[in-house]
Design a protein that fits this description.
By secondary structure, chain A is of the alpha/beta class. Chain A has 3 helices and 5 strands, in the order ββαβαβαβ. In chain A, α2 links the parallel β3 and β4. The N and C termini of chain A lie far apart (about 50 Å). Classes of the chains: A alpha/beta, B alpha+beta. At the A-B interface, α1, α2 and α3 of A face α2 and α4 of B. Bound molecules: adenosine-5'-triphosphate (ATP) and magnesium ion (MG). Magnesium ion binds next to α2 of chain B.
């Protein structure tokens, strides 16, 4: 299962990986939803940093989880999306229903000559 | 105009073939050495069209055939036709509206056509209810 669930208190972190399409979305959805229903978390974080491909089925996956989280007043945060995923997320306007934190390009510390 | 290269694929409308289809088209385009970003655009657009055949044209219950023809034309023009013989689209204009989905499950964003349109240079859809749907995608790859 290309999913790593981390549950601590009322925070659920779902680390997704691999390719997200209509085929792979179903088991992901079921796994995440059972955690949401069990924990009723305040915050669900969906981490896309290990996802290499995503189409509109990934947007459907996020939207559906947002809806489920709303039912008990929780919210969704999206993080780790880079490159092509960022493009798909931007087009979808998903930032209207979930907080989107895009992958930061790592800052390389400069050696400052004194 | 005569294509410089052509390939044809026919496969079952099983969801496990979504990855196969987009990867096959990307592999066909690979000799043109597309940019990483262009390759992602192509894969995503093909994935959208093929998923629509599986989800909407034939439905989750029935399995039908999906046909893809891909061609490379001069000036680095990639041409991809995705065809099904499924239920067809009643109102193409409505279907292509952003966020429109005929699916009632609430798990579909209605963004497939929007992604095809913004990730390629040209999208043509023809359909007849009860007969099936044909989507033609074209993308001009940048000069390398
Ligand atoms: N090949 C097809 N056969 C029959 N109907 C189709 C086909 N392709 C698209 N449609 C219809 O057009 C609608 C819009 O398609 P689109 O791909 O934009 O959104 P979606 O598939 O509903 O959602 P998403 O692609 O975001 O998962 C579909 O809901 C469906 O009703
Ligand atoms: Mg679709």
């Amino acid at each position: 299962m290309p999913l790593k669930l981390d549950i601590s208190g009322s925070f659920v972190r779902a680390g997704l990986s691999g390719e997200i399409d209509h085929h792979s979305a179903k088991p992901l959805r079921e796994e995440i939803d059972s955690a949401i229903i069990r924990v009723q978390p305040e915050l669900l974080e969906l981490d896309f940093s290990a996802v290499s491909f995503m189409d509109s089925s990934g947007i459907g996956l996020i939207m559906g989880r947002c809806r489920l989280m709303e039912e008990h007043g929780g919210s969704v945060r999206i993080c780790g999306a880079s490159g092509h995923l960022k493009k798909v997320l931007k087009l979808s306007g998903i930032d209207r229903i979930a907080a989107v934190e895009t992958a930061k390009t790592k800052e390389v510390p400069h050696e400052t000559a004194e | 105009m005569k294509p410089l290269n052509e390939m044809k694929l026919t496969f079952d409308s099983r969801s496990s073939n979504e990855a196969f289809a987009r990867t096959a088209v990307a592999a066909f385009a690979a000799p043109l050495d597309p940019l990483m970003d262009e390759l992602c655009d192509i894969k995503t657009a093909v994935s959208e069209a093929v998923t629509n055949c599986i989800v909407h044209a034939y439905g989750e219950s029935g399995i039908g055939k999906i046909h893809i023809t891909a061609r490379i034309y001069p000036s680095r023009r990639l041409w991809i036709k995705i065809r099904d013989s499924g239920c067809g689209i009643e109102d193409i204009k409505q279907a292509m509206q952003p966020a429109y989905s005929g699916d009632q499950s609430g798990e579909r964003a209605g963004l497939g056509f929007s992604i095809m349109c913004s990730f390629t240079d040209r999208v043509r859809v023809s359909s007849r209810p009860g007969q099936g749907t044909t989507v033609i995608l074209e993308k001009i790859l940048s000069e390398r």
